Amino acid sequence: MSYPPPHGSYPQQYGPPPPQGYQYPPQAYPSQGYPPQQGYSGPPAPPQGYAQGGQSGAPHGGYLQGATIGPGRPPPSPQQQHGGYATQGQYNHGYPPPQQPAYGAPSHSPYPQQQAYPPPQQQPYGPPPHSPNPQQQTYPPSQPSPYGAPPPQGQYPQQQYSVPPASQQYGQPPPQHGTYNAPPQALPYGAPPPQSYGTPQARPTPPSPGYVPGQVARVDMSHQADECRKAMKGLGTDEAALIRVLTRIPPLEIPIIKEAFRQRHGRDLEHDVQKEVSGHFELCLLSILRGPLQQDVWCLNKALKGAGTDEDLLNEVLIGRSNADMQAMKQAYHHTYHRNLEHDVRDDLSAKTERLFSMILSATRQEESAPVLPQSIDADVTEIHRCTEARIGAEQLTVCAILSNRSDTQIRAIAHAYEHKYRRSLEMVFIHEFSGHMEDVLVQMVRCGTDRAMRDAINLEHAMAGAGTKDHMLVARIVKLHWNPAHLQQVKGAYKVRYKRDLIGRVRGETSGDYERCLVAMLQ
Which spans does this entry mark as compositional bias, Gly residues (predicted)? Predict the structure, then answer.
């Protein structure tokens, strides 16, 4: 039984491939250029080789109504016919699934500023084409070959269950003996999936911009340093000038302006800002001046110090991060506070939640370039069901070991395959089977895989919803988003679809003064 070709549509049932090449659906992108501004088109489709979700009655992507996580779930929208959250298992038929880049990764986004959502283009499952940066993909993709034609150079060949290919090529797993009805043996707790002979080695995801110590841009920031000094010199402070200069600095230029300020004026820029401004406006500017890596380290220390743990802030920093970024954060935390991050997390958490974060901090998850093998995905789906709905009382650590070891693309495949097989959203399963902090973490991991932009949009609303604004969470989330402008535009589009209002207008309604102007400048 074959899976459909990499660029084909997704049939409702596994079955024979179409007898001809890929046919674009009625609302597909035109052959030239980018789609018209039609709003958010919904969460990414599953990786190739997986049929669409079943008739679970829950919106695809895992955002459920009436759930306990976040400020609620999205109501049905008119966009459910082609994209959006379909209530009857309807994905964007035939639409190639987009790629979700890791946080902070540079992106040559095809979407201009204020462009409507959809998420960026995703490669077919398997190793990405050989390029300097596999994350940088642009739309439209190359025209797919008709079914049966040999795959393009560098593309992962088509896989089949039980039926060996006529000629084995490099990059294909060996033929599976036996039938599909006999899935691989369940993995022991915490063990990564075995690598099949012939499976190409996944290339490590590079660190996000600003996460390599000593990595700086070669630019002259003397003018910006002088503007900052002029804004704070003498009586009074020109807050508008500070906002104009500091909110536009990319991550790799932050060390340059701080060094230029020190050399030209013999002063420390962060120290001067701390003396000149105060309150949440001060928090915004200092969060920018720390840069992405040191801001994460500062947030981790804030989440762990004192009585109790700031679980939301801890989740915000650690969930969904690449192995390279996780290793950089652990090293920077030790260098800054002379303490071990994993030890501090173990001291603050307890029981199985502590074990879950130990798995996350081990930085051993699959890289995003790792192939999505249908056999492995189906084995994970079966094991998750066995540990949750198929028994009384969840076998929590096995589920934690699976999700903490898989890449976002693999988690997306698991979520779609689970709903197709058991007619129930994986997010709903976790909400029903888990509770407390562990439930929050597992749901956030699923959302990162299925639709990261919508996950971030929901988290932003959660920081503003209810009585009083969670200002420290709002600042942390907006500062992190503004360092990745392409992803920020996706989040703004997802927010508008989800809440039927503009994100900037929502922020203006919750904040005021220089604090409001600084946040709005980062979002624009």
Answer: 51-64
Q: Residue 138 is encoded by which pair of tokens?
A: 């642009």
Place of tokens 């695809």: 60
In angstroms, what CA-CA distances link 224 with 111, 290, 514? 29, 17, 20
Burial 190-225 (b: 16+ CB within 10 A, else e): beebeeeeebeebeebbbbbbbeeeeeeeeebeebb
pLDDT digits (tens, 9 = 90+) for 126-176: 444 443 443 433 333 344 443 344 444 444 334 333 333 444 444 444 444
Q: How many residues does the chain have?
A: 524
For the chain, what is the total number of helices (H) and then of strands (E)?
Answer: 19, 0
Residue 511: count of CB within 10 angstroms of its CB = 22
* C-beta of residue 8 within 8 angstroms of C-beta of residue 94: yes
Sign of the C-alpha dihedral, residues 98, 103, 105, 111? Answer: positive
Q: What angle do CA 134, 137, 141 make, to 5 degrees?
A: 125
Chain segment 94-139, per-residue pLDDT in tens: 334 445 444 444 444 433 444 445 544 444 444 444 434 434 333 3
Among positive and negative, which fits the CA dihedral 174, 177, 180, 182?
negative
Question: Residue 337 in contact with residue 301, Cβ under 8 Å?
Answer: yes
Q: First CA to last CA across the chain, in angstroms?
A: 49
Tens-place pLDDT, residues 234-279: 888 999 999 999 999 999 999 999 999 999 999 999 999 999 999 9
Question: Which amino acid is residue 227, in one-letter code?
Answer: E
What does pTM read for this prediction?
0.67
Which helix (H) or strand (E) segment holds residue 176: the answer is: none
Angle, CA of 116, 48 and 406, to the nearest 5° = 90
Nearest to 210 by CA among 249, 243, 246, 244: 249
Q: How many CB atoms lie within 10 A of CB 58?
A: 24
Say how far residue 50 (Cα) sits from the centre of its chain.
20
DSSP line for 223-285? HHHHHHHHHHSSSS--HHHHHHHHTT--GGGHHHHHHHHHHHHSS-HHHHHHHH--HHHHHHH
Tokens 């013999």 found at: 266
Asked if 414 and 381 touch (Cβ cutoff 8 Å), the reply is yes
